[in-house]
Design a protein that fits this description.
Blueprint (H helix, E strand, L loop, with lengths): L7 H9 L12 H11 L6 E6 L2 E5 L6 E5 L4 E4 L5 H11 L7 E5 L5 H4 L12 E5 L13 H11 L33 E3 L4 E5 L2 E7 L8 E5 L4 E5 L20 H12 L5 E4 L8 H27 L4 H7 L19 H13 L14 H12 L2 H13 L3 H11 L7 H17 L4 H16 L8
Parallel strand pairs: 4-5, 5-6, 6-7, 11-12
Antiparallel strand pairs: 1-2, 2-3, 3-4, 8-9, 9-10, 10-11
Helix pairs in contact: 5-14, 6-7, 7-9, 8-9, 10-11, 11-12, 11-13, 12-13, 13-14
Protein name: Alkyl/aryl-sulfatase
Organism: Coraliomargarita algicola
Keywords: Signal
């Protein structure tokens, strides 16, 4: 077991690795890799003693699982993705207690927190606690699961080679997933009241509703130990207010309010759903307060832009974290990003139309591409501009031009595909946001393999 205490010095050192680049997650390739490798320390595989009777397993899968030791049994908080990973974590926990599992607590219903439950169960079935709304994490968008699965694979880099992969922002790159969700056990006790209290194995617990990353989330408070389990509403990265794999709108304002509610407890110890626990009271409370403030600031700035009549793309390029939050290591955009959050807030509040009548009925992509080519002086001239953008390392522009060229019947689509592949890999090399990096690389590989040779999406 390793006992870890995050200090101001460690936080500052991590922060220095980021630099003042919060408006853009693109940096020099060497620096991007350095930052991602630094973040690896947040999920190094180990058991951490959080308090006298609280242990957290980090790095056994993508999420964390914790064990609270009571007088005649133990309580498990979240159960990882699969029974294989769960059983390994439980074996490690057994070095500190051989008492039976009396209860399992689910902070929310994402599969990486619930899929390994039976790996913690012994001869007697424990009580399993969750919110009354448990299971509603994905909202109404389950009908698009087929495309979400494809995008999920890209976001997390599940098909990347060992040389390509780094991490998942708040989790290691390589996890045991062959038996994912095969250990799930349904809740037996549904919590209907905010602030519900229970005593399990002599441990006093309080459960609080905390909509945010999911609308079925809760946080768990141990009043005697002053330990707070946040679920996925807090971890050491700017939060994933929108996931590029595709999600229903995550209520950003409620997310901010939920984290502020946590901070009001002034915990001595904070155990996030991913990344390292914080074992310093001053840092723990400050981090939660800053997290809530950061989310609320992005929301407020976006709403101001909306009410000023600005488009989501314009607002996404204008909104930034407040200056006093830009040196905080738990707000570096390793997982979520500010521009993604802005666009999600806009669509969540107003829908897709930006108010500009030009965008009410835009030209179809093929017609638009033909007109862009005409402006450029013809297809060959547009291809020349595409190649020039790649040569000049203007990779985003090269991508956009390639997407026009691919629609032109008199263009060499294979050339456009090659430009797009090269631009994607160049962007990936400079990207320290893990989902962006993984998506760029995964998509480039799919293009190269021919999987996306007809329709590029």
């Amino acid at each position: 077991m390793k006992t870890v205490k995050l200090t101001h010095a460690l936080l500052a050192a991590t922060c220095l690795s980021a630099g003042a680049i919060y408006a853009d997650t693109q940096v020099e390739p060497e620096h991007a890799l350095h930052m991602l490798h630094t973040q690896d320390a947040q999920f190094e595989k180990q058991i951490i003693q959080v308090a006298d009777n609280v242990y957290t397993a980090v790095g056994y899968h993508g999420a964390n699982t914790s064990m609270i030791v009571g007088n005649d049994g133990v309580i498990i908080v979240d159960t990882l993705m699969s029974p294989t990973s769960a059983a390994e974590a439980m074996q490690a926990f057994r070095k500190y207690s051989d008492k039976p599992v009396k209860a399992i607590l689910y902070t929310h219903s994402h599969s990486d927190h619930i899929g390994g439950a039976n790996g913690f169960v012994g001869d007697t079935m424990p009580a399993i606690y969750a919110t009354e709304s448990f299971g509603s994490a994905e909202g109404v968008n389950q009908v698009v699961d087929p495309v979400k699965m494809k995008r999920n694979i890209r976001q997390f880099g599940r098909d990347l080679t060992g040389e390509e992969v780094t991490n998942r922002g708040v989790a290691p790159a390589n996890t045991t997933d062959h038996d994912r969700m095969q250990g799930f056990l349904p809740p037996t006790i549904r919590i209907e009241q905010d602030g519900y209290q229970a005593t399990i194995a002599g441990i006093e617990l309080e459960f609080y509703f905390a909509p945010g990353e999911t609308d079925d989330a809760m946080f768990i408070w141990l009043p005697k130990e002053k330990v707070l389990f946040t679920g996925d509403n807090f971890y050491s990265s700017f939060p994933n207010l929108y996931a590029i794999r595709g999600t229903a709108y995550r209520d950003v304002l409620k997310w901010s309010e939920s984290v502020a509610k946590m901070a009001a407890f002034e915990p001595d110890y904070v155990v996030p759903g991913h990344t390292m626990p914080i074992l310093d009271k001053a840092i723990a409370t400050t981090a939660l307060s800053h997290y809530s403030e950061a989310i609320r600031s992005i929301y407020d700035q976006t709403v101001d832009g909306i009410n000023a009549g600005k488009s989501p793309e314009l607002i996404a390029h204008e909104v930034h974290l407040p200056d006093h939050l830009q040196d905080k290591p738990y707000l570096i955009e390793f997982y979520g990003t500010v521009p993604h959050a802005v666009r999600a807030i806009y669509v969540g509040l107003l829908g897709w139309f930006d108010g500009n009548p030009t965008t009410l009925n835009p030209l179809e992509p093929k017609v638009q591409a033909e007109k862009i080519a005409q402006l450029a002086g013809g297809t060959e001239a547009l291809i020349k501009q595409m190649n020039a953008a790649l040569e000049a390392e203007d990779y985003q522009w090269a991508l956009e031009l390639a997407d026009h060229v691919k629609w032109l019947p008199d263009a060499d689509r294979s050339q456009a595909r090659q430009v797009k592949i090269q631009a994607l890999r160049a962007l990936a090399a400079r990207e320290y946001n893990a989902p962006n990096r993984n998506y760029y690389l995964s998509y480039a590989n799919e293009l190269e393999s021919g999987k996306l040779s007809t329709i590029w999406f």
